[in-house]
């Protein structure tokens, strides 16, 4: 999707890769919700494993409002029946929001709370990404 492409273009040091084409193929085998966020997270990790120079890993999650309750990690019916869906892609190192899309209507205070909740959720994903990549790299065997 062009949204994922724009997010990743903002973290890759493209100037270090002249005349280089990066192809990311994403196959969604099963979808419950937040597929865009999952694709961004997986793509960010894949780029890191491929040695593509980046500013940092991108972490993405969705937040929303369901029955007047602000929630993190929308799934299933929450995605289709909730009042608000707000996917966010976040660059923790620079505190940059790379993706912010919203379906629904919120008061300013609710939006600010949801954005903070999204950043906290993204930080959890970011820590998981880093740990997973470190574990993977430490288990590589060179022959």
Structural commentary:
The chain is an alpha+beta fold and 143 residues long. The mean pLDDT is 90. The chain has a 4-stranded antiparallel β-sheet, with helices on both faces. It has helices at 2-9, 35-49, 77-81, 108-138; strands spanning 59-66, 69-72, 84-91, 96-100. It has a single domain (2-138), classed as GHMP Kinase, N-terminal domain (Ribosomal Protein S5, domain 2, 2-Layer Sandwich), CATH 3.30.230. It contains 4 helices and 4 strands; from the N terminus they run H-H-E-E-H-E-E-H.
Number of domains: 1
| Shape annotation | globular
Spell out the helices and strands N to C: HHEEHEEH
CATH topology: Ribosomal Protein S5, domain 2
Mean pLDDT: 90
How many β-strand runs? 4
Q: Look at the structure and give the CATH class.
A: Alpha Beta
The CATH architecture classification is: 2-Layer Sandwich
- Please count the helical segments: 4
Query: What helical percentage do the residues reach?
Result: 40-55%
Q: Which ranges are low-confidence, i.e. pLDDT below 50, for 5 or more consecutive residues?
A: none
Query: What is the strand arrangement across the widest sheet?
Result: 2-1-3-4
Hey, roughly how much beta strand do the residues contain? 15-25%
Task: Sketch the major β-sheet.
Answer: 4 strands, antiparallel
Termini separation (Å)?
38 Å
Alpha-beta classification: alpha+beta
Q: Which radius of gyration do the C-alpha atoms yield? A: 16 Å
CATH homologous group name: GHMP Kinase, N-terminal domain
């Amino acid at each position: 999707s062009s949204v994922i492409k724009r997010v990743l273009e903002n973290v890759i040091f493209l100037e270090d890769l002249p005349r280089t084409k990066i192809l990311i193929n994403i196959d969604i085998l099963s979808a419950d919700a937040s597929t865009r966020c999952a694709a961004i997270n997986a793509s960010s990790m894949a780029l890191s494993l491929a040695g593509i120079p980046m500013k940092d890993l991108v972490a993405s999650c969705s937040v929303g409002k369901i029955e007047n309750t602000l929630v993190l990690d929308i799934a299933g019916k929450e995605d289709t029946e909730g009042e608000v869906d707000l996917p966010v892609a976040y660059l923790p190192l620079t505190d940059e929001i790379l993706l912010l899309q919203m379906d629904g209507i919120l008061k300013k205070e609710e939006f600010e709370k949801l954005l903070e909740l999204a950043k906290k959720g993204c930080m959890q994903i970011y820590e998981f990404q880093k740990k997973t990549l470190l574990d993977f790299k430490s288990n590589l065997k060179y022959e």
